[in-house]
Amino acid sequence: MTIPTTDLTPPDVIRCAYAELIVSDLAEARAFYVGVLGLVVTDEDENAIYLRAFEEYLHHSLILRKGPVPALSVLAYRVRSAAELDVAAAYYADLGVRVERKPAGFTRGIGEAVRIQDPLGFPIEFFYEAEHVERFTRRYDVQGAGAISRLDHFNVVTPDVPAAVAYYEGLNFKVSEDIEDSDKTVYAAWMYRKATVHDVALTGGDGPRMHHIAFATHERSQILHLCDHLGAIRQSDKIERGPGRHGVSNAFYLYLLDPDGHRIEIYTHDYYTGDPDNPTLTWDVHDNQRRDWWGTPVVPSWYANASTVLDLEGNPVDSVARTDDREADVTIGADGFSYTRADDVTTGFKLGAQL
Ligand code: 4SX
Ligand code: FE2
Q1: Which residues in the chain show pLDDT less than 70?
Q2: Residues 244/253, Cβ–Cβ less than 8 Å
Q3: Which one of the ligands is nearest to 297 CA?
Q4: Is the CB–ligand 1 distance for residue 241 below 6 Å?
Q5: Cβ-proximal residues to 216 (8 Å cutoff; 6+ apart), any chain
Q6: Residue 178: its pLDDT value, please?
Q7: pLDDT, tens digit, for every residue of 127-158?
Q8: Do domains 13-127 and 150-345 have the same CATH topology?
Q9: Is the CB of residue 80 less than 8 Å from the CB of residue 12?
Q10: Residue 287's closest CA among 156, 187, 199?
Q11: Cα–Cα separations (whole angstroms), residue 96 to 15, 99, 118, 313
Q12: Separation of 249 CA from ligand 1 center, angstroms?
């Protein structure tokens, strides 16, 4: 993949801020996102539901919009000020991608925005102004046992991970962790602007496709409660992977599939990355603990399936096939090269060393 470059200044991105998913049945989607996940409804009509998590004071962090094809229609990043929208528009015009300016209110609750189809093929929005709504941080009267606090990250599938990393480095994102092999094939990378492990993860595969949207809880117990809740309503089939502890990021996790098959991760306990010299941690793709610290195998569907993405007109974007080695092929089956015991990559200490 050839990624265009520019010498212009990139917009100052604060963080991943909201996603818009196209769902086939709003009532079914509502039962999952509001009934099970407990997200707070800021607003809704016959076409869309605007949701936020308990600590969020912007209008929404997730929009569910009714449409013919289940898909991702927007990933939105918040920039540091309204002036950054001009910076974004100039930057992307110079990159040669499609740029559209949207007036305030084009999306309910959101001020002026710039929408682009990024060089990786994803529909991306930048905005600053947004309507403030009540922050439910202390509303323990309405928070359930599985309370979700905030949006944490996006995970996207793209065929050429180093090219995607270079594109996001152009936006001043930094790599916290990645997965490689000894031939320097890069299978995935985690990149951030806010001081967590990531705002966006780049997963190698046929793309552009959306792998998942992740929300954070405060506690592992909240994730376990969501599992119990799904069991109690006889919907354990909505659990795709986990619960478990990631190697990469060290977060406790659970992956769920919504009624349209969009993957949602519930995530907690990653670590602070905000110092300028935060080190990058590189995992060997043959390390059996990289994706689950307890060694639980990744289910094949997690590698294979991802959501269609739409262009700025709302049409599905064709996927480009990955040509580099695929992680599922490296790690599932009789490759004979994976290991569980090795010197500790996360600390550099020899196994068994006394601390
Ligand atoms: O499966 S991984 O441990 O590589 C992983 C996947 C780590 C952090 C994430 O957010 C994720 O989705
Ligand atoms: Fe994730």
Answers
A1: 331-336, 345-355
A2: yes
A3: 1
A4: no
A5: 53, 148, 149, 150, 151, 152, 266, 267, 268
A6: 98
A7: 999 999 999 999 999 999 999 999 999 999 99
A8: yes
A9: yes
A10: 187
A11: 24, 9, 10, 17
A12: 7
Half-sphere exposure of 208 (CA within 13 A, CB side): 22
Question: How many angstroms separate the alpha carbon of residue 291 from the centre of ligand 1?
Answer: 6
User: Which CATH class for the 13-127 domain?
Assistant: alpha beta
d(CA 345, CA 349): 8
Query: Is CATH 3.10.180.10 the right assignment for the domain spanning 150-345?
Result: yes
Model pLDDT, residue 341: 79
102, burial (CB in 10 Å: exposed 0-12, middle 13-18, buried 19+)? middle
247 lines ligand 1 (CB under 6 A): yes
The set of residues, in sequence order, having a beta carbon less than 8 Å from that of 208 and lying 6+ positions away, is 120, 121, 122, 156, 157, 158, 309, 317, 319, 320
| Domain layout of the chain by residue ranges | 13-127, 150-345
Give CA–CA dist 339/348, Å, rounded. 16
Q: Which atom of ligand 1 is nearest to the CA of 188?
A: 4
| Ligand 1 contact via 196 beta carbon (within 6 Å) | no
| CB of 263 closer than 6 angstroms to any ligand 1 atom | no
Distance in angstroms (rounded) separating the CA atoms of residues 230 and 16? 28
Measured in angstroms, how far is the CA atom of residue 190 from the centroid of ligand 1? 9
What is the per-residue pLDDT for 321?
A: 98
Whether the CB of 246 sits within 6 Å of ligand 1: yes
How far apart are the C-alpha atoms of 56 and 230, rounded to whole Å?
A: 24
